[in-house]
């Protein structure tokens, strides 16, 4: 999946999760020159409550480091905002996790992302469904 399609998918996921509110909107920023902001969730119709997104589609062995978190925080501050969500397909280093806590950035790693996509059925579809049975001991 190309990075821009992945950004769209992540904005769609947060929308389905309810972050855009009842009458808010969600959008993906332009492909380049986005100043480190990949998506914006307006949580209300006037856009007074915003959540900014940074999305990194990394290989499992390429972890997100503290400088990427601090750079994202700087981008958020330039927008006069106080919160953000950083999503990656990989993992975060301890330095990144610590910085995110201090900077009010919510982190979503690859494992959590997979679970959220399955839970909210975004970007996935059921291929097969299995049912297993056991004998009801109360009936015998």
UniProtKB/TrEMBL annotation:
<dbReference type="Pfam" id="PF04471">
    <property type="entry name" value="Mrr_cat"/>
</dbReference>
<dbReference type="GO" id="GO:0009307">
    <property type="term" value="P:DNA restriction-modification system"/>
</dbReference>
<dbReference type="InterPro" id="IPR011335">
    <property type="entry name" value="Restrct_endonuc-II-like"/>
</dbReference>
<dbReference type="InterPro" id="IPR007560">
    <property type="entry name" value="Restrct_endonuc_IV_Mrr"/>
</dbReference>
<feature type="domain" description="Restriction endonuclease type IV Mrr">
    <location>
        <begin position="1"/>
        <end position="117"/>
    </location>
</feature>
<dbReference type="GO" id="GO:0015666">
    <property type="term" value="F:restriction endodeoxyribonuclease activity"/>
</dbReference>
<protein>
    <submittedName>
        <fullName>Restriction endonuclease</fullName>
    </submittedName>
</protein>
<keyword id="KW-0255">Endonuclease</keyword>
<keyword id="KW-0378">Hydrolase</keyword>
<dbReference type="InterPro" id="IPR052906">
    <property type="entry name" value="Type_IV_Methyl-Rstrct_Enzyme"/>
</dbReference>
<keyword id="KW-0540">Nuclease</keyword>
<dbReference type="GO" id="GO:0003677">
    <property type="term" value="F:DNA binding"/>
</dbReference>
<dbReference type="InterPro" id="IPR011856">
    <property type="entry name" value="tRNA_endonuc-like_dom_sf"/>
</dbReference>
